[in-house]
Write a sequence for this structure.
């Protein structure tokens, strides 16, 4: 997610405070992937965990394609 998207106010309450949930790696606890993004004030979900996983997989596939070219 780009910084300008993070700065957008919540459509439900207008707050700009957000909480990024992370999925910790079970083997390497210091390593984590982005999970869902929620409004800290009202709980509105900007990105679900499944959407974050799909974005991550698309980025990984793109990097794999660039390596093979």
């Amino acid at each position: 997610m780009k910084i300008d998207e993070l700065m957008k106010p919540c459509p439900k309450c207008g707050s700009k405070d957000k909480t990024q949930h992370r999925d910790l790696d079970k083997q390497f606890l210091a390593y984590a992937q982005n999970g869902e993004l929620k409004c800290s004030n009202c709980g509105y979900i900007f990105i679900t965990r499944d959407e974050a996983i799909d974005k991550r997989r698309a980025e990984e596939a793109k990097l794999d394609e660039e390596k093979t070219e």
